[in-house]
Design goal:
The structure is a single chain. The chain is of the alpha/beta class. The protein has two domains: 145 residues, Rossmann fold (3-Layer(aba) Sandwich); 65 residues. The protein contains ten helices and six strands; from the N terminus they run E-H-H-H-H-H-E-H-E-H-E-H-E-H-E-H. The longest helix has 20 residues.
Length: 222
């Protein structure tokens, strides 16, 4: 960052990036599909966590399944995940990173495609309701990641300008690329460094704590 140029908007994914949810979501989707008489191996489901339900159901179940049972599957996943959400904890360093970004002058938007009640729960779990500048949720857009809608909506809520996306899944960076936004990746979602770089992340860190120590060397400081 140089001169009086404003730092880029920090767009932070929540699930798998700030809170440790990816495997609970995978299990919830597995159970939801089983309730619709469809068995999909958990490892396959995990590779698609980061997509919103509108994208995940037809991708994994097929268009016919999505048309006939998609609504029921999404409702079942909401119920199954609701039984697991109290197990969810923030990832180490999540709140400190947000504080650090704010101290550096960034507008901080939580760019999430989670359901409203889940997003609100995470905001309180992280203790950042009075710190961040805003957040998105699935109801804000017609299509979730890997479509760019969530990122574009978050940028709009922030007032526009350059932005950088922090995420943990390939879908975060496919969406960011479609929105013309550079990305910083984390290994906290269970995707490999190579996968995240291949999807468009410019740099990948093992943890939020490692990222906090290296912010001056990331796109957040360009």
């Amino acid at each position: 960052m140089s001169g009086s140029q404003s730092p880029p908007v920090a767009l932070l994914d929540i699930d798998g990036t700030l809170v440790d949810t990816n495997y609970q979501h995978a299990l919830a989707w597995y159970r939801a599909f089983r309730r619709q008489d469809l068995t999909i191996p958990l490892w396959i489901i995990h590779r698609h966590i980061g997509m919103g339900g509108d994208q995940l159901v037809p991708t994994l179940g097929g268009e016919k399944f999505a048309a006939e049972r998609g609504e029921a599957a999404r409702a079942a996943e909401k119920e199954e995940y609701g039984a697991l959400i109290e197990q969810v904890q923030p990832l180490p360093g999540a709140r400190r990173l947000i504080e650090q970004l704010k101290e550096r002058g960034h507008t901080v938007m939580l760019a999430s495609s989670a359901k409203e009640e889940e997003t609100e729960h995470y905001v309180d779990l992280l203790g950042v309701r009075e710190i961040v500048d805003g957040w998105t949720m699935s109801a804000d857009v017609e299509a979730t990641k890997p479509e760019p809608d969530i990122i574009e909506t978050a940028m709009g809520k922030a007032g526009g300008g350059p932005a950088v996306m922090l995420g943990d899944s390939t879908w975060d960076f496919i969406a960011a690329g479609r929105a013309g936004v550079p990305g910083v990746g984390l290994l906290t979602g269970g995707f490999s460094r190579e996968e995240l770089l291949g999807a468009g992340a410019e740099v990948v860190f093992e943890s939020l704590e490692e990222l906090s120590e290296s912010l001056p060397q990331t796109p957040f400081s360009k």
